[in-house]
Amino acid sequence: MTDDLRIVVDLDAAEPPFEQVRAQLAGLIATGRLLPGDRLPTVRALAADLGLAANTVARAYKELEAAGLVETRRRAGTVVASGEHTADVAVAALAAKFAAAARDAGLDAAAAIDLVRAALRAG
Asked: For 85, which DSSP code?
């Protein structure tokens, strides 16, 4: 996971660590910061990054899977499920990434919109 998707666990909080991890990942999925097909870190890797027991992260992942937010695949690991996202959320996230790339490339709004129109026509 990139730095802008960092999970933070407060061990002094009343909420158990697994619930903090679950809630933060669910929020990232709901807002489109994690998109369908995005891979989550392995249980061991995330547990090590957060200083938690692997069973704590595994419980968070199990609850996310039970809610239909993630899927665990044998070779692909744990990925964001496609059913939870609406097309609007996924496309809005991609549009934001495109807008940032267009700005970074020095394009004005009209040029960026022209590119989108051309892509839509090309189908």
From this structure: -
Residue numbers in the chain where pLDDT is lower than 70: 1-4, 84-90
Label residue 84 exposed, middle or buried (CB < 10 Å: 0-12, 13-18, 19+): middle
pTM over 0.85: no
Does residue 82 contact residue 37 with C-beta atoms inside 8 Å?
yes
SS3 65: helix
Residue with tokens 């070779």: 75
Do 54 and 43 form a contact (C-beta atoms < 8 A)? yes
> Which uninterrupted H or E stretch holds 73?
strand 70-73
